[in-house]
Amino acid sequence: MASDALDNSVTLCRSCDLVIRKRALPTGVRALCPRCHTQLYDTPYCSINGMLALCITAIIFFFPANTYPVLELEFLGSMRTTTVLEGAIAVYQQGYWVVAIAVMTAAVIAPGILLVSILVQIVIIKYGLQHSFLRSVLKQALKLQGLLTQLTMLEIYVISFLVAAFNLADFATVSFGFGTFCFTMLFIMNLFLLREYDLEHMWSFLEQ
Ligand SMILES: [Zn+2]
Fold first, then answer.
1. Ligand 1 centre from 118 Cα, in Å?
2. Ligand 1 centroid, distance to 169 Cα (angstroms)
3. For residues 110 and 152, is the Cβ–Cβ distance under 8 A?
4. How many A from CA of 36 to the centre of ligand 1?
5. In a 10 Å sphere around its CB, with 0-12 CB exposed, 13-18 middle and 19+ buried, how is residue 172 labelled?
6. pLDDT in tens, 37-96
7. Whole-prediction pTM
8. Residue 40 C-alpha to ligand 1 middle, in angstroms?
9. Torsion angle, CA of 121/122/127/128, rounded to 10 degrees?
10. How far is CA 176 from the centre of its chain?
11. 128, CA 20 to 30 Å: which among 14, 17, 60, 163?
């Protein structure tokens, strides 16, 4: 265990092989090799407050993204709209219940739990690290994090409704509405949030 900690705190310069002791960096700062000035590493994570802002924004977009229509179709004068939930229900009613469960998990359930889980983690790190119960909640959330990240596949959903829109554009009028905007924003917020999220860094709060 002690040797692991030592290995993590030391890095090698890629150009001149100088051994450098890693230090925590302020946000937006990049570490350079003192001998040859090669870039070594960026801040591996944004501040907890930055992640909190991204997480809350994503949660705000989560609800309209799942309740407003993501795709509006006008075909022979009749207007059809569908939400993510209705899409999953329609697939289920056609007998493809495995697909329906996959859609619900990847586009609604997993992203929802993931966002709430990250929010809980951030709040505990900011305010509750001294309580042993909250520390164990944080520990469980961190253990679940990998699974939830793998199950969250918003990008597949974004691609699928773009493909549907291009395929249908020839014989129906396709329009994107408020729901599409919210879903896309949710996707982008999620992307940035997971880019900033660093599991090792989150674990390090428990070691203090
Ligand atoms: Zn160097």
1. 36
2. 55
3. yes
4. 4
5. middle
6. 887 776 655 678 889 999 999 999 999 988 888 777 777 777 777 787 888 888 888 888
7. 0.73
8. 8
9. 10
10. 23
11. 60
